[in-house]
TrEMBL record, chain A:
It comes from Subsaximicrobium wynnwilliamsii. The keyword ATP-binding applies. The lineage of its organism: Bacteria, Pseudomonadati, Bacteroidota, Flavobacteriia, Flavobacteriales. This is ABC transporter ATP-binding protein. Belongs to the ABC transporter superfamily. Macrolide exporter (TC 3.A.1.122) family. Residues 2-232 form the ABC transporter domain.
From TrEMBL, chain B:
This is FtsX-like permease family protein. The chain crosses the membrane at residues 21-43, 301-319, 344-371, 391-418, 439-459, 692-715, 736-758, 778-798. The lineage of its organism: Bacteria, Pseudomonadati, Bacteroidota, Flavobacteriia, Flavobacteriales. Keywords: Cell membrane, Membrane, Transmembrane, Transmembrane helix. The keyword Transmembrane helix applies. Residues 20-248 form the MacB-like periplasmic core domain. One of its GO terms (molecular function) is transmembrane transporter activity. Residues 304-418, 698-798 form the ABC3 transporter permease C-terminal domain. GO terms for cellular component: plasma membrane. It is found in: Cell membrane. It comes from Subsaximicrobium wynnwilliamsii.
């Protein structure tokens, strides 16, 4: 599903050029659950932004669903993004001025789904996430766990092929965190590809494969034992 | 999607109530001014649009070119009418009429005469073929085809004959000025749409030959022109204009007088299009039209509206770009979820439009108020109901869209161009370019406000100067009454004077012409031969008896007063003495102006005084007696000096004078005027302008200060932590206040530096219209600049002081 080859990204100020990604290469197949780990500043988030088509690499190749997308302009990236990718953030990133229902509805609006169908789909996903009773509330009125469930609901409402999660449990206590991880696992089992950036070894264990990074490069890649049989190297 | 936008717009608006209020109020002020001014423009541009072939209708007017400059008259000389009717080709129709002012109208059935019926004309038989009236009784063909016929409008018919049907009114006889009897032969509906053709009584032209107008109507002199002589033509087609103009040029040329040729004074007949009629311009509309639309005034008004709107938009742009960071997260999320930049721009524009719509509703209420404030400035027919006009509604909607785009586009561009990656990581930096744009806009706002302030102070000073300046004659407690001009009886005037003399509060009485300063002028041309050269000058004439100069406290510089009321002698003013070339007043005494039987000796020189508004210089003038008394007495006005100490008794005095008037002139209306009020009327335009300027200034300052306040609130709140730290380190309240206000005060000062020369230039030009002008002192600028800086400081301090006086620990803890 995703192939990156020699991916490069720099951040330049007037004096210093920082390399965020240094000729990074790997593949992610459809249906995989991949965790990306590494210390702060190793380039995880940069990678996730590029994978999420929020940012453009400075070099190398990024093939998404057999299409070379490196060098796509903002408009093309947005088009591809809204149909294929869902996001879950550490800080939830819900819009404060919109209710739970309206937040989840947003991606459907941008992909041009009709109002009646939107209602049906949003209600279905809220039901599935167990937050139907909160649909008219605003984000500030919810607990962290509930907010993240809304965020996950929003990420999946469009049935994306890929979900990118940036430390999804970072702001949650362990029980809420586990709930979210269970949700992601369920989604993965239903066929959605998941790439997750995390600091937590505990969370990483939910994945099939862990890519460890340092200074913009892949250092190790271990396939978790439980899944070795199902995922060929 | 749309509902989503409305929802989020509404929630954002209500979340930031303060900023939204500033935005809405600023825009509402601009919009209400635009609505009222738009209404005025629309009103004035929709006069006489309903006439058949209106674009082919022209009025013939007269333009004089002489070495002294151009002069205009909206009438023509009477012989031109026959010439046009008989010889002019290229026109399908023409009509001539004379505007008239009969002093009363009577009918056998009336209990009392109607005094001064207004809007009366004597029109030729072509009149009703030229303008299409709706006939309620009678018909266009025969209504005024012979002497002693009159057509009334329905308004006038109902006024004169309230209980009769239109057909019953036909055949009734009206008598004008006790001498001209006419039969009502038709009744027409008043024009429903806006028009300057507001005639109410149309009398057949042949009737006029029996009236007091006879001299004028039958005048065969090509060189006398009265503004009451009106000539309209209807061209065959648009292209005929130049052909018709050429023929008119020939008529003018072939009828030039010898004198005109000698003094290089040329007369042209000019075709004035119907669409120009309402904007009197160099001309005027008709003798009785009191409201003249003025394109220059309308243009200035449009500028004021535009400025106020721009100020409102600037507040919007500034506050919204300043607040951008608060919206950044939402933008980032929306973009991540697939919103395109276009969709975001549209969303923000929509939000702006919604705010603009609020502002519009508010502004309609404000506009109703503004219309009341400017009631005396606006034409009578302009009222709030015009807002329902579809054209105005359309214009309003268009304006709203324009405003929304103007105010919303830049903030929308800024907001929508945020990169989602940086936003979501809280890495947004407000770049310097946005900051300097905001600063630039604030400077621009304050330039406008500052120019308005300086102008208000300077114009106020000039008007105060005009009002207070000594006219050169006494103006306190002097009143005058004009006797009915149709009644030439000197005996009656004398009787009236005797009755007035019996009133103890009246200290002094004089019989004469107009007061020393008035709207009337009588002038003649005189020639003085000093042996070598011939001095030719216009000489204004001031008529009065022996008490006149005393009453007005006008002193003689040399010579003596007139020996009696009818003797042919001049008491010239000092300005005239200088024009004639006499070194000293004494030198003028005994010299003669004119030759032969027209020779008149100068017996005295009086001091100079202003005869009109101080826009004009003192003109050469002579004080004279009632020379033409046998034919027409110029002594028609009674001037009175009231007791200056007893001003509280004046109402009683005036009442007594009115009682006396009733016994002498029972049929005429009593109207007593105070000379100082007459002088104040010279400056009506100026006082309307001051009022307008005060409002424009107030509103522009208000909008600018609101915007400043908004920005100060915003920046101060962002610096709460810094303030806390500085306080902990020992900064005083004053130091903190200075810190917070410094940046903005610099902007206001920059605005002053730019505004001062602009204002100076504009005011300097404006003052050129006045012969007497106040100085543009440095303190006008200094005070205006200081005023706005002080105001800005006070407004900012409201917020900065309250923030700075907070307990620092609190603000630091919340971080």
């Amino acid at each position: 599903m995703i192939t990156i080859i020699d991916l490069e990204k720099y951040y330049a100020t007037e004096e210093v050029r920082t390399i965020a990604l240094n000729k990074l290469s790997f593949k992610v197949r459809e249906g995989e659950f991949v965790a990306i780990m590494g210390p702060s500043g190793c380039g995880k988030s940069t990678l996730l932004n590029i994978l999420g088509l929020l940012d453009d690499p400075d070099g190398g190749s990024f093939i998404f669903n057999d299409i070379e997308v490196a060098g796509f302009n903002e408009r093309k990236r947005a088009e591809l993004r809204k149909h294929n990718i869902g996001f879950v953030f550490q800080s939830f990133n819900l819009i404060d001025e919109l209710t739970v229902f309206e937040n989840v509805e947003l991606p459907l609006i941008y992909t041009g789904v009709k109002a009646a169908e939107r209602k049906e789909r949003v209600d279905a996903v809220l039901e599935k996430m167990g937050i139907m009773h909160r649909r008219k509330h605003f984000p500030q009125q919810l607990s962290g766990g509930q907010q993240q469930r809304v965020a996950v609901a929003r990420a999946v409402v469009n049935n994306p092929k890929l979900i990118l999660a940036d430390e999804p449990t970072g702001n949650l206590d362990s029980s809420n965190g586990n709930e979210v991880m269970d949700l992601l696992t369920e989604l993965n089992e239903a066929g959605t590809t998941i790439i997750m950036v995390t600091h937590s070894e505990h969370d990483a264990k939910y994945s099939h494969r862990i890519i460890r990074m340092l200074d913009g490069q892949k250092v190790t890649e271990n396939i978790l034992a439980d899944y070795k049989s199902s995922v060929a190297p | 999607m749309f509902r989503n936008y409305i929802k989020i717009a509404w929630r954002n608006i209500s979340k930031n109530k303060g900023f939204s209020a500033i935005n809405v109020i600023s825009l509402a002020i601009g919009l209400s001014a635009s609505f009222v001014i738009g209404l005025m423009v629309y009103y004035d541009f929709t006069f006489d649009k309903f006439h058949k072939d209106g674009d082919l209708i022209y009025r013939v007017t007269t333009v004089y070119n002489s070495p002294e400059g151009e002069d205009y008259n909206y009438g023509v000389s009477v012989p031109l009418i026959a010439e046009v009717k008989q010889k002019l080709t290229g026109i399908q129709q023409s009509t001539a009429f004379f505007t008239a002012e009969p002093s009363k109208v009577m009918n056998a059935g009336f209990s009392k005469a109607f005094n001064n019926p207004e809007r009366v004309i004597y029109a030729d038989p072509d009149f009703f073929g030229f303008l299409n009236y709706e006939w309620l009784a009678g018909n266009a063909i025969s209504a005024i085809d012979a002497p002693n016929k009159v057509v009334l409008t329905e308004n006038r018919a109902k006024k004169y004959f309230p209980n009769k049907s239109y057909n019953e009114i036909l055949g009734e006889t009206l008598v004008y000025d006790d001498s001209v009897a006419v039969a009502v032969t038709g009744i027409v509906a008043n024009f429903k749409d806006r028009t300057d053709f507001t005639f109410e009584e149309i009398i057949s032209l042949d009737t006029g030959k029996q009236s007091y107008m006879q001299d004028q109507i039958t005048d065969d002199n090509w060189n006398s022109t009265s503004s009451s002589t009106q000539l309209f033509v209807k061209l065959n087609d648009k292209n005929a204009r130049s052909k018709v103009q050429r023929q008119l040029d020939v008529f003018a040329k072939s009828n030039e007088s010898e004198n005109a040729v000698k003094y290089n004074e040329h007369r042209h007949f000019y075709l004035q299009a119907l669409s120009e009629l309402h904007f009197g311009g160099n001309y005027g509309v008709f003798d009785f039209t009191d409201y003249n639309a003025n394109k220059t005034v309308l243009t200035s008004l449009i500028w004021i509206a535009a400025f106020l709107l721009i100020l409102g938009c600037i507040n919007f742009i500034n506050l919204n770009t300043a607040q951008a960071t608060q919206r950044a997260k939402e933008i980032g999320i929306r973009k991540t979820l697939g919103s395109s930049k276009k969709q975001l721009i549209f969303q923000f524009l929509w939000e702006t439009f919604l705010l603009t719509l609020f502002a519009a509703f508010l502004s309609i209420l404000l506009a109703a108020g503004l219309i009341k404030v400017f009631a005396d400035f606006l034409p009578e027919g302009l009222h709030f109901g015009l807002f329902a006009d579809p054209f105005i509604i359309g214009f309003g909607m268009l304006l709203l869209v324009i405003i929304a785009v103007l105010a919303g586009f830049y903030p929308a561009m800024v907001l929508s161009s945020f990169k989602p990656v940086s936003v979501l990581k809280n890495r947004i930096f407000i770049t310097n370019s946005h900051l300097s744009l905001r600063k630039g806009l604030i400077v621009f706002q304050f330039i406008i406000a500052q120019v308005f302030i300086i102008s208000t102070v300077a114009v106020g000073k000039q008007i105060h100067f005009l009002m207070e300046k000594d006219m050169g004659f006494k103006t306190e407690a002097i009143t005058y009454i004009r006797t009915p001009w149709m009644d030439q009886s000197l005996q009656k005037r004398e009787v009236f004077i005797q009755k007035l003399k019996a009133i103890p509060q009246i200290e002094n009485i004089s019989l004469g012409g107009s007061p020393p300063a008035s709207f009337n002028t009588h002038a003649t041309e005189v020639v003085y031969l000093n042996g070598k050269t011939e001095v030719r000058t216009d000489l204004e004439l001031l008529y009065g008896d022996e008490a006149y100069l005393n009453l007005y406290d006008i002193e003689l510089l040399a010579g003596r007063k007139l020996r009696n009321d009818t003797i042919h002698e001049y008491v010239i003013n000092d300005a005239c003495r200088k024009v004639l070339g006499f070194e000293s007043p004494a030198e003028a005494i005994g010299k003669t102006l004119g030759q032969g039987k027209d020779a008149v000796p100068i017996v005295g020189v009086m001091e100079d005084f202003n005869q009109r508004s101080l826009k004009t210089q003192i003109q050469p003038m002579a004080f004279v007696g009632d020379w033409s008394r046998k034919r027409y007495s110029q002594f028609n006005t009674i001037h009175m000096q009231l007791n200056q100490q007893g001003s509280k008794n004046w109402p009683e005095t005036i009442a007594k004078a009115e009682t006396a008037w009733q016994t002498v002139y029972p049929e005429s209306d009593f109207k007593m005027e105070f000379i100082d009020q007459t002088i104040a009327k010279f400056y009506q335009t100026e006082s309307s302008m001051t009022k307008l300027l005060n409002w424009a200034t107030g509103l522009s300052v208000l909008i600018s200060c609101l915007g400043l306040l908004g920005l100060v609130i915003y920046t101060t709140e962002r610096r709460v932590k810094e303030i806390g730290i500085r306080k902990v380190l020992g900064a005083s309240l004053a130091q903190l206040n200075l810190l917070l206000c410094k940046d903005f005060i610099v902007l206001v000062l920059v605005a002053f530096i730019v505004a001062a020369p602009i204002a100076y230039y504009g005011l300097h030009n404006w003052l050129q219209d006045y012969a007497y002008k106040t100085r543009l002192n440095w303190w006008i600028f200094a005070a205006s600049g200081f005023g706005i800086v002080a105001l800005a400081l006070i407004i900012m301090s409201v917020k900065t002081l309250s923030t700075a006086s907070k307990i620092p620990v609190k603000s630091l803890r919340t971080e």
